[in-house]
């Protein structure tokens, strides 16, 4: 096993898109940031040098961080944020997972430009992919382009008063030919393929809050992994991917040589019934014509490298895929429901029963602004927050990260409030009338804010049914758990009914994911083993919902035996949040 070492210099840079310079925060001057590529079993060291004006942490999304919660990268939960002009080093091992994950800043909306791929290949020498070896591997990162300052965007989200959309969608950082600057068509991401060859696309949804449909005209995908867990090969012409999720899919270049669009469409719930898509972005899958044509072919579009507006290309036609309707949630429902894990030896079995079970509603509610009393929801003094079991998360004001407080058993942990196993009995989450009609009206349940946490004894098998509610403006919810993968046992539309729905649980080959999509006004049942000691964030991966408080903390206690308790903090690097880190030299 190797040690893979990177230095991430976080800084601000001007990027020119849509005829305009926008100041964005990036890693190593790249957008998306550098990919980390490892083999299973490797160790990773990343030195983060913060030359930006922001407090930063980097989260290794989906990496299990076994016995290493210290490297999880969540501000004030696992570490002090890295202030401007300071360094911090992340060290962790990659074990028992293969496929595509990603990294992103876990600070406000900055993750819209601070992210990159994290690619885990099989252990060197020991094994290989459980599918035919692809001729080439290609990360596809679906992103967004915001002209709005991302700090400002976050402030609006926290205030629950938010009505903004990105200026465009990106594929591997390129805006593509649907977004032109003063009429000049711009080429986006280009994937050059050779006839008959097989490509492994490593697809990552890094956008702030849209599920996406991805298609390539004239081609089919064979999905082979999701969230760095192999799945039984699943053939489909459309991939659905929610923020936080990753999908690995094989594509064979078996169409008549030509140019084909690869298109990502941001989906929207049926209501509000917006006719304009939030964004659609497209790149080109381009067959090499070298073998087929001898007559001096047109020069290819100039260098696709670099950041910013791309070089104009010869405006050659390409075949466009027929996309699902942006309001149709069914392709997503079927895509997620059709995945099963690949049967391989050595996989941990699905526990046959749970020790504890929770039913968690995902909704919105209204709280009074700080220091104000408000008589009714929807009034000026109230703000809309996102909830789990009708409670909205906020970080406690502690002097040290919660993980450290937990490790040292300090009184800071008393600031936490228990996340109940069920919603309150008086809380009406099924009533359609609760759907807010506009940003300022609608009847919202009164709710409250707290530092929600749930403790688990080491090794507890936990069942959670996540229930999306009518309050959620018909949104789905990609729920992400840090430090653990979850077995996705079943999903359904409407309200969960234990009597009826337990029978649907797949205990044989459920897909295993770190992010589970809870369908709009529907539910998803998951099971996981709380066996990784530490303090782990669980939250909706829509940045909008997270900023508004759809989050909680799961505390997994130390186990009784060797190798089941949280090790001491890597001391040299873990100093208190008084900004006493080493200065950038
Ligand atoms: Cu990818 Cu806590 O997030």
Automatic annotation (TrEMBL):
The keyword Ribonucleoprotein does not apply. Residues 10-123, 137-267, 420-558 form the Plastocyanin-like domain. Its cofactor is Cu cation. Keywords: Apoplast, Copper, Lignin degradation, Metal-binding, Oxidoreductase, Repeat, Secreted. One of its GO terms (biological process) is lignin catabolic process. This is laccase. PANTHER family: LACCASE (PTHR11709:SF356), MULTI-COPPER OXIDASE (PTHR11709). GO terms for cellular component: apoplast. InterPro entries: Cu-oxidase-like_N (IPR011707), Cu-oxidase_2nd (IPR001117), Cu-oxidase_C (IPR011706), Cu-oxidase_fam (IPR045087), Cu_oxidase_CS (IPR033138), Cu_oxidase_Cu_BS (IPR002355), Cupredoxin (IPR008972), CuRO_1_LCC (IPR034288). Lignin degradation and detoxification of lignin-derived products. Belongs to the multicopper oxidase family. One of its GO terms (molecular function) is hydroquinone:oxygen oxidoreductase activity. Gene3D superfamilies: Cupredoxins - blue copper proteins. Residues 290-310 are annotated as: Disordered. It catalyses: 4 hydroquinone + O2 = 4 benzosemiquinone + 2 H2O. The keyword Phosphoprotein does not apply. Signal peptide: none annotated. It holds the Pfam family Cu-oxidase_3. It comes from Panicum hallii var. hallii. It is found in: Secreted, Extracellular space, Apoplast. Its EC number is 1.10.3.2.
